[in-house]
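Reference record
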Amino acid sequence: VQLQASGGGLVEIGGSLRLSCVVSGRTLTGSGTGWFRQAPGQEQEFVAAIKRDDSILVKDFLKGRFTISRDDAKNTVYLQMDSLLPEDTAVYYCALHAESGGSYYYTPLAYDYWGQGTLVTVSS
């Protein structure tokens, strides 16, 4: 199983980026997927997820700005980020939810495969 994240870059305050995560070796249909981020010197934090039942979770303070979606035909999950702020600067990771993850989606411990990360920098 491999995850390839892309789409990061440098953007100005208020700008938008769309991150992509192409998954190979496991079909996303029926699988949970998530996005996490880690800013310099900080803990990794949950951003958004699509649960196994296709319901969607988004970190409360990101709702309205960040949107997660999935294209089953391309086996790809996306993270659309709008109205970006300097505090959104981080390395963003996509991950596959483990069978053993149960109903836990907010902790990285519930995910068993990870992409390599893509850096998002929002300039002030």
About this structure: The longest strand covers residues 17-24. The radius of gyration is 13 Å.
